[in-house]
């Protein structure tokens, strides 16, 4: 034993404990994060490996998320909690520390399905759907992307035409989260007057959801193709306030904001897993944590995680104060998903061969984050959104 070894052990911190980010939160925000974390630890983490392996997300989780109060938690009334944006973000972070699939479910339900109804629906539509969606008694999905139009939804081919007092919808939506679980789909379609939104009960004749199998990412999440074959809807199915592409894009801002926080949960869980593993793993007669190369990796990952959370809280405070601009959300979504993916991959290296099994979370998180990098606007779309904000020139086309 060396003289250095006989000194009392130095005080250690968790990565975010080192940043002391809790200091930036109020009591309610800390309580919400702790409650969701306890739920994830008790109910989700013990099962996630099995769900990921069998590519399932049990429908019953909707009710549990409803009881937890996280479905549409940032909306007011209609059974929703009306918490602030930072609290919603922290809930997303804790859910994604379990798996991106859990955060995806909650994002799509609360920020895409419920928000589209809350912001653009009639009072009757809100009364019909929001309380059930908030409780997890009903499940929603959001169909914007099509097989040939993902990054460029303006080109969508799904069409809604008037037939007397009805609407008739035809088209195909692709990569739709919760598609096979949903009771109601928010579907975006071209009309003679431009893009409009419709609420489609999924038991309407002509509506089919086909689950997408053999995914290597987001396996604990249901992803589907939606086919609309002469789906006839009453006039009251149209979202009356949604006019043009700006309507679905405004819903995306809500979900993207959740991802700004959420992705950091996957990174935090990866990093905590890697630190624990490396502390117990002996290589060349010393713990892996005792090597400078390891400490450099841990220090750099901790910096990116902490900087990401500072940015997320900053954007949340702006959102709560006066509303956050889409290009500011792009800053957070691009940075935090990109860095979280890099962290999850780097953590996997510290686990060596053990890191390629489902027993440890980092590679599962990294695989999931490949989807998160792509959905809700690819990293390239967010680079271009930031470029447009800096130069005034749109370089998308
Ligand atoms: P552009 O001319 O720029 O805009 C059309 C209108 O929309 C307005 N707008 C926005 N409004 C609110 N929020 C935003 N983020 C907005 N971006 C644009 C804009 O001001 C304009 O309004 P107006 O009144 O002048 O008409 O439209 P563009 O066709 O040039 O497209 C711009 C671009 C590329 C940024 C947009 O198409 C885009 O964001 N593409 C990415 C598509 C995307 O993110 N799809 C996500 C699908 S949903 C999903 O992935 C769910 S995953 C969920 C999960 O499991 O968690
Ligand atoms: P494309 O748009 O074909 O892009 C392919 C590549 O080209 C990307 O790298 C892209 O960045 C790049 N590219 C495109 N345009 C440009 C350009 N102008 N300049 C440079 N590069 C460019 N959609 C929904 O509507 N609802 C959902 O619930 C939903 N859930 C999803 C769940 C999962 C698991 C996944 C994977 C996707 C989901 N999506 C959903 C779809 C998602 O939003 C799209 O996959 C995404 O917008 C990208 O579209 P795309 O796959 O068609 O790729």
Number of extended strands:
11
Order of helices and strands: HHHEEHHHEEEEEEEHEEHHHH
Helix content: 40-55%
SS-based class: alpha+beta
What molecules are bound to this protein? 3-thiaglutaryl-CoA, flavin-adenine dinucleotide
Widest beta sheet: strand line-up: 4-5-9-8
Here the CATH topology of the largest domain equals Butyryl-CoA Dehydrogenase, subunit A, domain 3
The outline comes out as elongated
- Contiguous low-pLDDT stretches (5 residues minimum) are none
Computed CA radius of gyration, to the nearest angstrom = 22 Å
The CATH homologous superfamily of the largest domain corresponds to: Butyryl-CoA Dehydrogenase, subunit A, domain 3
Strand content: 15-25%
Domains counted in the coordinates: how many?
3
CATH uppermost class of the largest domain: Mainly Alpha
- The helix tally amounts to 11
